[in-house]
Design goal:
The chain has 143 residues and is an alpha+beta fold. It has helices at residues 7-10, 93-107, 119-127, and strands at residues 2-3, 18-20, 24-30, 43-49, 52-58, 64-73, 76-84, 112-117, 131-141. Strand 4 and strand 5 (52-58) form a beta hairpin.
């Protein structure tokens, strides 16, 4: 379970069996077009299934270097599962994935982006204009 509240607010409300995991950050941004360019030596693969759009960045052999997805919810989109493989970090791949998702969201009529970020992800998203609006507490039920 993830909820936009600090753990100090939730710990006393949950019955035994619920364990706090990593806290994150609920973030949002007003979407803007950026016309992203695929990083040199890479290709981008985009697939939309229903309301979910998947973006993958592939190396010349077709192996996944980075990926992310978004779900359209009217004028808002939720960005999710944005990840860059360890060997390819710090090369602008996550930046490209986020910009590509945002541009596609705008073309679908969305104006607002929302996501839950880890500490590492938050650093990337802030460079793209995203703002933290709440702590995102994560709990797992383990009876």
């Amino acid at each position: 379970m993830k909820t936009p509240a600090g753990p100090e607010e939730l710990d006393s409300w949950l019955p035994p069996g619920w364990t706090r995991e990593e806290d994150g950050h609920l973030m949002a941004v007003d979407l803007m077009a950026t016309l992203p360019v695929v990083p040199q030596g890479c290709t981008a693969a985009v697939e939309t299934i229903g309301a979910v759009t998947h973006v993958r960045v592939l190396d010349p052999a077709g192996e996944r270097m980075a990926a992310g997805q978004m779900a359209a919810l009217g004028e808002a989109v939720v960005m999710d599962r944005v990840v860059t493989a360890e060997a390819y970090r710090r090369r602008g791949l996550g930046d490209f994935v986020m910009r590509e998702l945002a541009d596609r969201a705008l073309r679908q009529g969305a104006v607002l982006g929302v996501l839950g970020a880890t500490d590492n992800g938050r650093a990337l998203y802030e460079t793209l204009g995203w703002k933290k609006h709440a702590t995102l507490a994560e709990y797992v039920y383990r009876p």
